[in-house]
Amino acid sequence: MVKICCIGAGYVGGPTMAVIALKCPAIEVAVVDISVSRINAWNSEQLPIYEPGLEDVVKQCRGKNLFFSTDVEKHVSEADIVFVSVNTPTKTQGLGAGKAADLTYWESAARMIADVSKSDKIVVEKSTVPVKTAEAIEKILTHNSKKINFQILSNPEFLAEGTAIQDLFNPDRVLIGGRETPEGAKAIQALKDVYAHWVPVERIICTNLWSAELSKLAANAFLAQRISSVNAMSALCEATGADVTQVSHAVGKDSRIGPKFLNASVGFGGSCFQKDILNLVYICECNGLPEVANYWKQVIKVNDYQKTRFVNRVVSSMFNTVSGKKIAILGFAFKKDTGDTRETPAIDVCKGLLGDKAQLSIYDPQVSEDQIKRDLSMKKFDWDHPVHLQSADPTSITQVSVVGDAYEATKGAHGICILTEWDEFRKLDYQRIFYNMQKPAFVFDGRNVVDVEKLREIGFIVYSIGKPLDSWLKDMPAVA
């Protein structure tokens, strides 16, 4: 029986291994992590991450050919294929601080693999890593190999949170990069055989190592660029009276462009986009390509501008101050159908409002109070370190309360900020909400989920990203 082990039981490792176990019943799959609480959660009725369809897949396989364990060394030692899906946070100090990836966890995983291995292994990069990481990992493994043969493969994930299980069941492509040697080709084939249990072979792309590593960064950079492009247009739409949804619809009808990732919003979030672009910027700078680096930097600058612009719009609309005012925050996750808050725009928006002394009442159907308060008290980039290395006792923020539903959040509020496009926010009884709010009552829709005209008929003053401005707002321009 082929044995697979995955180091790292997070958003990538857990779902990916669960689907491999489901589709390959003859393969034994172990997911290992040093976090006891995380492994306990994977073995419980309450999984540590929310992802539609994940629970069903895990329950079908857990205890049969899918195992979650803290006995890292045992499972690594026994495995034929070792996936490494550990954190690769952005460095906060030293060379490349604020841009380069910190490979501390990757390096320690590689050294541990070398230490405990007693047989030949295929080591698969599953984390998003900088180009040429495989070379560094290869050096660590070969210098500690004890005559064991290690082959390094790059197999980046292209999952979208909220649809990760469907993406794994029916991927656009599976990318496998390896050394262009007979041993490398054999390793690529071994991993290809795993995916071929359910993925059509024409969708399994095989490349050299560097192409696979760079393809992941490039894909995320291109997607983030589309969001920043439409968000830049949203600012122009507001200034001219155009409607960004109409503009993006017209643009998306061009078959060369297509409609995906053209929804204007308060900004992009998630664990990948900003981190991967910063990584790309650093690699470009290290390779003497400052013009290319500056091009990609602008994608992040526009994203930051969009969040700042939104906060400024809120404050300026409400008589230039939100001090002491209750603002309801609807949605904290970076997108709907996930509980993930990594780099969510809600963090920067909330911090901006807190800086103006607002009182925030936050509701999100999938994010816990502990997580929200942890995120609001954390320093930038700290979120990407393993949970056990983060502060166990987040600083108490007295201006923030986390509540159980949207009606409680909005009761007595001066304004509402919609920051995640949860379907339930489209269906709320806004007449009831209006009745229970302070007047004038404001709605700042950062995801374009509400019916603007209907809300204005109720009596709300509505700001919706990239839409023609309410006459009230025209008199109070946002300064950014």
From TrEMBL:
Enzyme class, spelled out: oxidoreductase
Gene Ontology molecular function, alphabetical: NAD binding; UDP-glucose 6-dehydrogenase activity
EC number assigned by the record: 1.1.1.22
Presence of the UniProt keyword Cell membrane in the record: no
A GO biological-process term: glycosaminoglycan biosynthetic process
Any Pfam family: UDPG_MGDP_dh_C
Record's GO cellular component terms: nucleus
Domain UDP-glucose/GDP-mannose dehydrogenase C-terminal residue range list: 328-452
Catalytic activity: UDP-alpha-D-glucose + 2 NAD(+) + H2O = UDP-alpha-D-glucuronate + 2 NADH + 3 H(+)
Assigned keywords, A-Z: NAD, Oxidoreductase
Keyword Cell inner membrane: no
Listed pathway(s): Nucleotide-sugar biosynthesis; UDP-alpha-D-glucuronate biosynthesis; UDP-alpha-D-glucuronate from UDP-alpha-D-glucose: step 1/1
Catalytic center residues: 272 (nucleophile)
InterPro entries: 6-PGluconate_DH-like_C_sf, NAD(P)-bd_dom_sf, UDP-Glc/GDP-Man, UDP-Glc/GDP-Man_DH_C, UDP-Glc/GDP-Man_DH_C_sf, UDP-Glc/GDP-Man_DH_dimer, UDP-Glc/GDP-Man_DH_N, UDPglc_DH_euk
Domain of life: Eukaryota
Positions annotated to bind NAD(+): 8-13, 33, 38, 86-90, 127-128, 161, 272-275, 342
Stated family: Belongs to the UDP-glucose/GDP-mannose dehydrogenase family.
NCBIfam families found in the cross-reference section: NDP-sugDHase
Family matches, as PANTHER family: UDP-GLUCOSE 6-DEHYDROGENASE 1, UDP-GLUCOSE DEHYDROGENASE/UDP-MANNAC DEHYDROGENASE
Protein's name in the database: UDP-glucose 6-dehydrogenase
Upper taxonomic lineage: Eukaryota, Viridiplantae, Streptophyta, Embryophyta, Tracheophyta
